Amino acid sequence: MAANLTYNEYPFLKELGIEPENKGAYMGQWLGNGPAITALNPATNKPIAIVHGASTDDYNKCLQAMMDARAVWQATPMPQRGEIVRQIGDELRKKKDALGKLVSLEMGKILAEGMGEVQEFIDICDYAVGLSRTINGLIYPSERKRHMLMEVWNPLGMVGIITAFNFPCAVFGWNAAISLVCGNTQIWKGASSTCLVTLATTKIVADVLERNGLPGGIATTVIGSGATVGEVMIQDKRLNLISFTGSTKIGRRISEAVNARFGRTILELGGNNAIIVMDDANLELAVPSALFAAVGTCGQRCTSCRRLLIHESVYDTVVERLKKAYAQVVERTGSPLDGATLLGPLHTKAAVKEYEEGLKTITSQGGKILFGGKVTGTNGGNFVEPTLVEINHDAPIVREELFVPILYLIKFKTFEEAVAINNEVPQGLSSSLFTNNQQQVFSWISSTGSDCGIINVNVPTNGAEIGVAFGGEKETGSGRESGSDSWKQYMRRGSVTINYSSDLPLAQGIKFG
Description:
14 helices, alpha/beta
């Protein structure tokens, strides 16, 4: 296999510290006694490099290193922890070009999105640095004289982070930057199919820790399959929190396992996101938004638009504009590393199969393909055509998430009908309404509107900023990542009562004895 590697075709790999063969576990030193994983280029399905994953013994060494580093890291003042995260952000800036190219190469997203993903990690580092000087507790009035009620926040302990292939760098950043300033030690398992991104990102974090004389156990990494390393993580009582990004099926399994041992979870699972285009919508905004939301990352974002709900009065116009836009995108399908490319490949051959089987099910349930629907397989890669499908909203397949670039076109008559269609699926991640009607805008974001965790107006379902919390409802999971007060999930709250008097009055005026 080593003789067939295409490693030498990508000089930026060397810049990131990646070799043709690599060790895939870090805890202050590099280990790799588990099965070998071959990283593939989804645009060609040719092998790039090899990573020797973590064994169970390697995993346990990482956990021991985390336990050993825990006291040191928690004793480090929060602003100093923030300084370490600031340095991680600076190193990401220096290597943004190389790491962005690697994200595009190994995941398959276009170069602009690969660079944007690294920028998202940089942004969350900046955000976390600010948090490190602003996280605060509260003081409440006491009903008793010379008593004080306080609320304090302390590190949760040890955190496990399991991320998916579609955002192999940024989602780790969402969790790691916040968790680190909160004072936790952590272990990260990235997707095996994007093991080189995991490796390169870990090297950046490890270099910062080592340069500052800090133990590697603060931020450890294991590369390996979910069935082996991942299963050990979710069962491990030493991990106070598991943050998981992936399918609803696996998320349900993780929720059951972690909650059974009274651990915490953050679950970012499936999305089945809708854009509603009202009769008064600005189509100069709505059509490009639907295009990017459905076709960006080849339809492999959890926030990708799956359902486009179009008012009957503008339906034909929107569909014709989309067909033209899709045709232009198809003409710019190709290598993700080519800056002119707008559509890269699906990530795996399994995804291509999902695309093919999904279209068979769609047509069997009355769906009509208006554009696309073909597997092209250019240069041996996982290339498919982005696809537009006209279908009834109550077709069973519409309730499922196909993680491929298939967009359902659904006609509606009234705003109330559109909201009901938006809410009728089991998932509840992202949603968007295009209108200039302020009554509808405020209805949309109210308790009678969208039931999703992300509720947008006149912007796509995807492309969230880091300043607000990210997450969803229903089968999309629970918990929030990134901004707002998501940091609270990585800390434990302490409610404090201090008596600074010489008396002992009891609450609620109770007299005892």
